[in-house]
């Protein structure tokens, strides 16, 4: 685990502008990435593993600011490696199946922080006209199509989409204001 604490420190320093720390970080994670490629990259010829390693290191360099300092580094690195490996296999037309179970405990629960709680949505919808509120409720909250949402209101699918767009714009203005 000390290696991973060192990885976090190096990546943190790299994100603060320390070029040497970035180089050290990339050297430090390379053996772990090679291990992932050997374990999961059987669909690729071994001579392509180094090419994929370079793609992973480049992706890490370009996306390093997406790492959250309060999150573990190892799953972040492994996720990038898995995605690049899958991309490489797809380019070759090979199928690859990567299990997600080893990282399930560190993945965010999409239901943990809903973007808009139901009570808050109803408060916002009460601030616009009833027809617009009904459209937003039907399409954005219940998942109906524009055609399904517009029919009870006497609107064509196109008119329902226009009205929905205007309603969402009004709601956006309310939230900003």
UniProtKB/TrEMBL annotation:
Pfam families: Sigma70_r2. One of its GO terms (molecular function) is sigma factor activity. GO terms for biological process: DNA-templated transcription initiation. InterPro entries: RNA_pol_sigma-70-like, RNA_pol_sigma-70_dom, RNA_pol_sigma70_r2, RNA_pol_sigma_r2, RNA_pol_sigma_r3/r4-like, WH-like_DNA-bd_sf. Keywords: DNA-binding, Sigma factor, Transcription, Transcription regulation. The keyword Cell membrane does not apply. Residues 28-93 form the RNA polymerase sigma-70 region domain. Belongs to the sigma-70 factor family. ECF subfamily. This is RNA polymerase sigma-70 factor. The lineage of its organism: Bacteria, Pseudomonadati, Pseudomonadota, Alphaproteobacteria, Rhodobacterales.
């Amino acid at each position: 685990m000390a290696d991973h604490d060192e990885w976090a420190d190096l990546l943190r320093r790299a994100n603060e502008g320390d070029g040497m720390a970035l180089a050290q970080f990339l050297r430090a994670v390379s053996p772990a990435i090679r291990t992932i490629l050997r374990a999961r990259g059987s669909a690729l010829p071994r001579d392509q593993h180094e090419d994929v390693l370079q793609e992973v290191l480049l992706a890490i360099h370009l996306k390093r600011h997406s790492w959250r300092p309060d999150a573990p580094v190892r799953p972040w690195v492994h996720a990038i490696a898995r995605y690049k490996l899958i991309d490489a296999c797809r380019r070759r037309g090979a199928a690859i199946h990567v299990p997600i179970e080893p990282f399930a405990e560190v993945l965010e629960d999409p239901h943990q922080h809903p973007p808009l709680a139901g009570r808050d949505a109803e408060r916002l919808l009460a601030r616009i006209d009833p027809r617009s509120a009904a459209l937003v409720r039907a399409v954005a909250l219940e998942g109906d199509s524009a055609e399904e949402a517009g029919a009870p209101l006497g609107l064509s699918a196109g008119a329902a989409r226009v009205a929905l767009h205007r309603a969402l714009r009004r709601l956006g203005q309310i939230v900003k204001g």
